[in-house]
């Protein structure tokens, strides 16, 4: 459960008086998520999400996320909007943390996606990339290749407490990526964390894309690699689902397209995506405070994905 900051109900009720959002009826900490504290609010007006920003979200980046979701929403993407208070302010402080009131979207996150659902997610990612064209905001990806080196350095000797030999494996992979990263591919604003828990669905229909707090400017096809690494394996990373991968890529290609250069670079992008989540999970595994109400995510589930990507044929990753 991700609630790092506990906010008493009276404080949330008082916070709501800044908005035309009704009075608080109930507030529940949300079990999913690992980055921020999220509450589902029921008010006399309806449902809202209250997010308090923690850990990796820099308050200075919030205007980028707010403007991006405005831009995407205006172009038909199903993304939640940040709600302004009566003075038009969307970024607030609550319990000593930056906080925002956010539109609630319906839908559920699938845990075992079908190929049809994977195809819909690929299509939604492509639509998001199309809608993001023309967005003028820029945000550096702190979790890029240099960022992975930094994170690996911070984990240091602790890697081998997670699994013997993990430190060497990470160092070897970083060296491979340094030599093969396709840095000349087209760059754009990307989501960078489009896991199934960040896609709301009803049946095979996508009803919302959420959690843009890693969104940034980076290689556009890397977003497809991240999404594939999240959607096309069993949760523990031990089984690759070729049918989901083919459907996901097909959905993306039909809605946005993938150039020959992006196809050639795709395997390196997938290896980078797997390493990125291995590293953040390893860092969190080592550093999560004992009293945090959060379920740590298993770094080794992404080591297994990395091993798969390192030995796969480039064609099978693209569903050929
Ligand atoms: N706008 C929203 N509408 C509906 N549910 C949401 C919304 N935002 C977040 N949630 C719920 O809260 C959970 C955690 O949100 P998320 O943004 O993924 O947290 P974190 O940033 O901590 O990873 C989601 O899995 C979803 O269940
Ligand atoms: N998707 C990442 C962790 C970020 O969590 P989210 O709750 O923001 O999706 C992972 O699985 O390691």
Automatic annotation (TrEMBL):
Signal peptide: none annotated. It catalyses: L-homoserine + ATP = O-phospho-L-homoserine + ADP + H(+). Residues 27-247 form the Aminoglycoside phosphotransferase domain. One of its GO terms (biological process) is threonine biosynthetic process. It comes from the Bacteria. The keyword Hydrolase does not apply. InterPro entries: Aminoglycoside_PTrfase (IPR002575), Homoserine_kinase_II (IPR005280), Kinase-like_dom_sf (IPR011009), Pseudomonas-type_ThrB (IPR050249). Keywords: Amino-acid biosynthesis, ATP-binding, Kinase, Nucleotide-binding, Threonine biosynthesis, Transferase. Pathway: Amino-acid biosynthesis; L-threonine biosynthesis; L-threonine from L-aspartate: step 4/5. Its EC number is 2.7.1.39. Belongs to the pseudomonas-type ThrB family. This is Homoserine kinase.
């Amino acid at each position: 459960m991700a609630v790092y900051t506990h906010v008493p109900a009276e404080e949330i009720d008082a916070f709501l008086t800044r908005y035309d959002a009704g009075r608080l009826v109930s507030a529940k900490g949300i079990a999913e998520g690992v980055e921020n504290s999220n509450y589902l609010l029921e008010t006399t007006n309806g449902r809202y999400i209250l997010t308090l920003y923690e850990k990796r979200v820099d308050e200075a980046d919030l205007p980028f996320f707010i403007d991006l979701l405005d831009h995407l929403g205006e172009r038909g993407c199903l993304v939640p909007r940040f709600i302004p208070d009566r003075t038009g302010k969307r970024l607030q402080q609550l319990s000593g943390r930056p906080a925002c009131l956010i539109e609630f979207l319906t839908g559920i996150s699938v845990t075992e996606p079908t190929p049809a659902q994977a195809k819909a997610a690929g299509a939604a990612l492509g639509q998001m990339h199309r809608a993001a064209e023309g967005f003028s905001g820029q945000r550096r990806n702190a979790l890029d290749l240099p960022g992975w080196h930094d994170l690996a350095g911070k984990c240091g000797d602790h890697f081998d407490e997670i699994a013997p030999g993990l430190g060497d494996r990470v160092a070897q992979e970083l060296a491979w990526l340094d030599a093969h990263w396709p840095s000349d591919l087209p760059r754009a604003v990307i989501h960078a964390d489009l896991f199934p828990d960040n896609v709301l669905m009803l049946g095979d229909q996508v009803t919302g894309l959420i959690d843009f707090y890693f969104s940034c400017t980076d290689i556009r096809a890397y977003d497809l690699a991240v999404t594939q690494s999240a959607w096309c394996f069993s949760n523990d990373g031990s089984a690759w689902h070729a049918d989901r991968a083919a459907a996901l890529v097909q959905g993306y290609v039909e809605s946005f397209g993938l150039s020959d250069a992006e196809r050639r670079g795709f395997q390196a992008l997938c290896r980078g995506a797997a390493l990125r989540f291995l590293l953040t999970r390893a860092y969190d595994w080592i550093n999560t405070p004992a009293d945090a109400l959060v379920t740590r995510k298993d770094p080794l589930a992404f080591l297994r994905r990395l091993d798969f990507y390192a030995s796969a044929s480039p064609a099978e990753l693209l569903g050929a």
